[in-house]
Design brief:
By secondary structure, this protein is of the alpha+beta class. It folds into three domains: 201 residues, Aminohydrolase, N-terminal nucleophile (Ntn) domain (Glutamine Phosphoribosylpyrophosphate, subunit 1, domain 1); 218 residues, Rossmann fold (3-Layer(aba) Sandwich), CATH 3.40.50; 47 residues, no CATH class. Helices cover 35% and strands 15% of the residues. It is globular.
Amino acid sequence: MLLIEKDLRGSFSKDRFCHQFVLGSAFVDALQGWQRVPVDESFKLTVHPEIAVEQVSDATRSITVIGQIFDPRTPGADNAGVARALFDVFSSVERLMAATAVCGGRWIIIAYDAERKAMFTDALGLRQVFYTTGECSRGFWVASQPGLLGWLFELRVDATAEKFIDSLEFRRHREYRWPGTATPFREIVRLLPNHYLDLCTGQCHRYWPDRALQEEGFDEAIEKAAGLLQGMMRAVHARFDVVIGMTAGFDSRIVLAASSAIRKGVAGVTVRQGGMPDNHQDIAVAARVLGKAGISREVIKALPYMSAEFSKAFKQNVFLAHDHYGQDVEAILHRFGRTKVVVTGSGAEVVREPFRKKIDAEKREITARDLATLQSMGECEFAVDSFQRWLGGIGERYNIHLLDLFSWEQSHGNWLAATQMEFDLAWRDMFTPFNCRELLTTMLSIDARYRSSPRHRAFYALIEKMWPDLLDEPINPDKSEGRGSLRKTGRSVKNAIKSRLVRRGIKKR
């Protein structure tokens, strides 16, 4: 049986459980040098020293914010200012959760009033929450990852989970992930995004979707989405020294486009992963785009393998971390030493219907086995059982497509959240402006044919709206599905440029 090693306690350093937290009935003495924040008489919060914590309270209400939270409508507000603004509208937990729909960042909120104590995350759950069930003999505890609770309570990996770890489905996929709310430990489960945790009962509840999305006009939705993206970038830039992770793809181009007003205060960075040639599109195209935009760029070359010392720290930081990210993390840490905040385009995939073309949900009911197949977990019963529980807990979806919700909560609220935690060793923090419920729902309200491949009209329109010159270079020229798709990409760029010239009065239709 796998066991979180007891003797690792003595080797704890500032890099152990970097940017993480524990919430429980007492402070954690073993985490020396960490912040100690009392939430109320029942819960004590122990937080890594590099993570911001804000508290606002009165005689009957309290909110505690873990991490950085942004409001794109007031980009100059600091973390405390956003927390105070939320507290001002906190008449109930439901009202508070609704008020955070416009907020971005990577955060967790603990809120209580006369009726309830609740804990919930940012839209995509990128600052993670895991909690113990009734099977844990040590009572009710919450933490940023299951390995931290496993280390704290000397838990053994469950036999069923260990079988899953040893399975072909898990090990053949280097982007391996855990299905649904499952973790390696029987006593610990994950809080998925769109759910809140009742701290009094230890039970989680879904709070979104709570209504049908209203289809918006294309131009109106693009206008609103662009405003949110630009406001988010101004807010991040106002607080931190920012670099933008650049590739040849759509998502990083949109993030760059949203930075047009702050272009003098940002830089670009590309991680050259092992085996990536000098002319790889993520290096060559990113260089041309940033060069024409007048933005400095740096290429960080990943190491061929992790050093022994770093490998130990990397694997102690996050239990079952993805080994192939370790070289990237070590190279970034050596270059920046957790002084930079990186902004990426992650999360945009939620609105591009990544799974819809793989399963025809209109012709038959989606099963748990279908979902396991989408996640490269095949017939693995551990995964199928987990996804069956997820399907059983959805309730009313209104007009949210099942596979879009699955992408939101499984690919991003699970796999992406876990990988971002692994990169916490390298960055001061990581953000994506798409991690905003109002932005995601605005994009989901656009007719699906404008969001999906091969044309991605909505994404071209966003770039054209915010910084049209960035369309002079093609998007992902080498990742298209053959020459036909490449020609379509070229025509899309050409048409976007033509449209821009028409509006400027330079060219006739």
